[in-house]
């Protein structure tokens, strides 16, 4: 595989302001070099499974999937359920990064195989700090099987 195809983080988020802040925070803290932003759940599935406009493209698994829940076309929970049903994604760390603090969403995300569930802080500074902590843990400290 061409190393240019390798991404460290696959980020699925439909709110441009949240996406911009998250990406900026990860890059400012030198936690990620290559990040791919996808804006809806169906495109995320297409990307991961090499379907739709990504047919024939087999990306290397990212080190981390940041996944919003409230997505157009296919919800984050549906994305999570589909990827966890496939053996090749068994060890892919999935961090749900969402505005939903609903108990039912938290329970379902963990039941479907999320590794972490983070409610996006509303305040800018707290949001940036939370992203830094997520990046430090999942991209620097955590060791995943090969």
UniProtKB/TrEMBL annotation:
SMART domains found in the cross-reference section: REC (SM00448)
Gene3D superfamilies: 3.40.50.2300
Residue stretches making up the Response regulatory domain: 8-135
Swiss-Prot/TrEMBL GO biological process terms: phosphorelay signal transduction system
InterPro entries per the UniProt record, alphabetical: CheY-like_superfamily, Sig_transdc_resp-reg_receiver, TCS_response_regulator
CDD domains assigned to the protein according to its UniProt record, in alphabetical order: REC_Rcp-like (cd17557)
PANTHER family documented for this protein: RESPONSE REGULATOR RCP1-RELATED (PTHR44520), TWO-COMPONENT SYSTEM REGULATORY PROTEIN (PTHR44520:SF1)
Protein name: Response regulatory domain-containing protein
Source organism: marine sediment metagenome
The organism's taxonomic lineage, starting at the top: unclassified sequences, metagenomes, ecological metagenomes
């Amino acid at each position: 595989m061409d190393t240019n195809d390798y991404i460290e983080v696959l980020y699925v988020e439909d709110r441009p302001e949240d996406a911009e802040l998250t990406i900026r925070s990860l890059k400012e803290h030198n936690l990620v070099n290559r990040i791919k932003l996808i804006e809806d759940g169906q495109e995320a599935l297409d990307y991961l499974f090499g379907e739709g406009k990504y047919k024939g493209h087999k990306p290397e698994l990212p080190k981390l999937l940041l996944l919003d829940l409230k997505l157009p076309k296919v919800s984050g929970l549906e994305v999570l359920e589909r990827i966890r049903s496939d053996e090749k994604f068994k060890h892919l760390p999935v961090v749900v990064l969402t505005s939903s603090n609903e108990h039912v969403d938290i329970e379902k995300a963990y039941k479907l195989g999320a590794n972490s569930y983070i409610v996006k802080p509303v305040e800018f500074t707290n949001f940036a700090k939370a992203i830094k902590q997520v990046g430090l843990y999942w991209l620097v400290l955590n060791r995943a099987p090969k």
